[in-house]
Specification:
Largest sheet: 8 strands, mixed
Number of strands: 22
Structural class: alpha+beta
Strand content: 15-25%
Radius of gyration: 30 Å
Strand order of the largest sheet: 6-9-10-22-21-20-17-11
Shape: globular
Length: 618
């Protein structure tokens, strides 16, 4: 028997012994939560209920920190004041559930806890009931824990008792309520859309649901309510919103889940400015209600081209400098072959960075290799020399041009990336964010919101060897782009816009196509034949023929917004029951094999036996 099993058996035996103390709740009613009482309640008779956080036996007085989702209250069992209540208090252990009746009093002089809302008082227990026992939890129910995330997810119902997790759920609630309150005042209707719909593979993979009633056919879980919300505009709903569940079968990372939530919004008879104004008001309401922070409106606008030029990203973090500089024309004839032949060469000046060690530079080099870069060129600017392996290849004119373009000064270091534009921007832009965090360039508590506009309509997929939609196939093109979207798709621009917060996209939307001819042209640009477009989107194309108003909208990523406002590092910390990075639910052990009878009813036969769960989910 392992040590864990032995400890588990001991706690189980203790539970059985203490079970005889359990009493029914009866007619007891809670008067306050564990974070309400203050000195103004001195002398009040109260009834509290919650979990025992800690028990401290001082030889006479027994102190217990009683916890619920709102906070802690110190309760005291005194043999002088209530000997019967004190008699059995020694059995209390962490996570035992109890109800107490008692009297509020100030804590003794010098014993107040300024870190607690209830820190100036304690409750002397007059009588109490043990409502339930508990095994010793696998980790402490407190914010500081070095427990592995996999264990916390396995015992999520315990993890959610931690104050931080309770705060995150409360913050999520506040944000959702702020969104609903704001949109309701603007006469939006909350309308639900289906979870079981048609698979239209264009973008991320669909989750498929087999149909028992139609063997061999499948529903798909919606990646977003996109087509339905547009058809609601066609239906005359005019203003729609939904706190919508969405599903995408894609590779995961810290801010992705296979199932996630977005605040989905659509409006008729609007242009970009009207949608953006509405969205700014919503996010300002969220910040006000959730954090008490006032957002200055209107938000800054930045075009996609400006964002990529200066920050190497379409979701720029503008809380700090380190802007990228295009030096391609300056080094076009350089003796350094990589610079002279590259499609794009960009530089990033780091003021005072010449003090970086070679080890630190090597770590940055390894970092950019993770984005496909072959390496990282650099130059340290000293008083009388440029220190770098590549300095000898640069002519005086090239040095002068780089220094002028980057604003170089003695003591700086400048980093370079050269190659395909996508790689250069991704690698150097990501390094910029890394350095901003490492060098302490971001002022704590800063919230930078902005719009990124004028996105490309298409992007080329190397995997599919065709042009695909940057946003989705129903995004309208800017007026001047309709004439070139087939002949020169790279230059076509969309009526699309993203809201960015501190370098994270939190909302994205567009004006939609409402003209059948324009939608047909868009599908043609994406490589769809008329037949394939009708096969996938026939119902939608038919709806367009029956009088579709101009419309547009936006969807906010709720999980990401809550994560950022909570200061969490992963959206798993702001979702009650998330999946892990392998899309497994460690609590319920989903996904899991199903009964052979269920498969037969669905007309499904597995090609091979699945690997054991322990090999696929840990």
């Amino acid at each position: 028997m392992s040590q864990f099993d032995q400890e588990d058996k001991i706690t189980t035996d203790i539970q059985k012994e203490h079970a005889r103390y359990i009493k029914p709740l009866g007619d007891w009613r809670r008067t306050h939560t564990c974070n309400q009482l203050t000195l103004s309640d001195d002398g009040s008779e109260v009834c509290l209920m919650g979990w025992a956080q800690y028990r401290r036996d001082h030889g006479g007085l027994i102190f217990v920190d009683l916890r619920d989702r709102d906070g802690l209250t110190q309760i005291v069992f005194s043999p002088e004041i209530a000997p019967e209540a004190h008699r059995d208090a020694h059995i209390l252990r962490s996570e035992y559930v109890l109800a107490i009746k008692g009297r509020v009093r100030p804590r003794p002089e010098g014993m107040a806890n300024p870190n607690l809302h209830t820190g100036e008082i304690e409750v002397v227990v007059l009588e109490w009931k043990l409502l339930n026992t508990a095994k010793t939890p696998p980790f402490l129910v407190e914010d500081r824990t070095d427990c592995a995330e996999s264990v916390r997810l396995q015992y999520r119902y315990i993890d959610l008792r931690r104050p931080m997790m309770a705060r995150n759920l409360r913050l999520r609630h506040k944000i959702v309520q702020a969104c609903r309150d704001y949109l309701n005042t603007l006469d939006f209707l909350e309308v639900e859309t289906p979870y079981l719909t048609k698979s239209t593979p264009e973008g991320a993979r669909d989750f498929l649901v087999p149909s028992r009633m139609f063997p061999g056919e499948f529903y798909a879980l919606p990646q977003s309510p996109q087509q339905f919300k547009q058809m609601l505009m066609m239906s005359g709903v005019d203003r729609y919103y939904q706190v919508a569940r969405c599903f995408r079968d894609e590779d995961l990372r810290a801010d992705r889940q296979p199932e996630f939530t977005q605040v989905d919004i659509e409006m008729s008879f609007v242009d970009e400015a009207q949608v953006q104004s509405m969205a700014e008001g919503l996010i300002a309401k969220v910040f006000h209600d959730a954090l008490g922070v006032e957002v200055e409106l209107p938000l800054r606008r930045m075009t996609y081209d400006e964002a990529m030029r200066d920050y190497g990203s379409d979701k720029p973090d503008t809380r700090f400098g380190l802007k990228l500089k295009d030096v391609t024309s300056i080094v076009r004839g350089s003796a350094f072959k990589l610079f002279s032949t590259a499609k794009l060469v960009k530089a990033m000046r780091v003021p005072g960075g010449a003090s970086m060690t070679r080890k630190e530079i090597d770590e940055h080099t390894d970092f950019v290799r993770g984005f496909g870069a072959q390496g990282l060129a650099w130059i340290k600017i000293h008083e009388n020399e440029w220190q770098s392996p590549i300095a000898k290849f640069l002519s005086p004119a090239e040095r002068e041009g780089i220094a002028r373009e980057c604003g170089l000064e003695v003591g700086d270091i400048v980093f370079f990336q050269a190659g395909e534009p996508g790689l250069v921007n991704n690698a150097l832009g990501s390094l910029r964010v890394r350095l901003g965090n490492m060098l302490g360039l971001i002022e704590p508590g800063t919230w930078n919101l902005l719009w990124v506009t004028d996105f490309p309509l298409f992007e080329y997929s190397e995997e599919e060897k065709r042009w695909v939609a940057c946003h989705h196939p129903f995004t309208a093109a800017q007026d001047e782009s309709y004439g070139i979207m087939l002949s020169d798709p790279e230059k076509a621009r969309a009526r699309a816009y993203d809201m960015v917060l501190n370098g994270n996209e939190i909302g994205g939307g567009s004006i939609r196509i409402h003209n059948p001819a324009d939608q047909t042209r868009m599908f043609e640009g994406l490589g769809f034949t008329e037949e394939s477009a009708r096969e996938r989107f026939g119902y939608f194309l038919q709806a367009l023929d029956y009088g579709t108003p101009p419309h547009g909208g936006i969807a906010f990523g709720l999980d990401r917004i809550v994560m950022l406002l909570a200061g969490a590092s992963s959206i798993r910390d702001v979702i009650a029951f998330p999946k892990n990075q392998k899309a497994s639910c460690l609590l319920t052990e989903a996904p899991s094999p199903v009964d052979a009878k269920q498969l037969r009813e669905l007309g499904i036969r597995l090609r091979e036996k699945p690997a054991p769960a322990a090999q696929t989910k840990e």
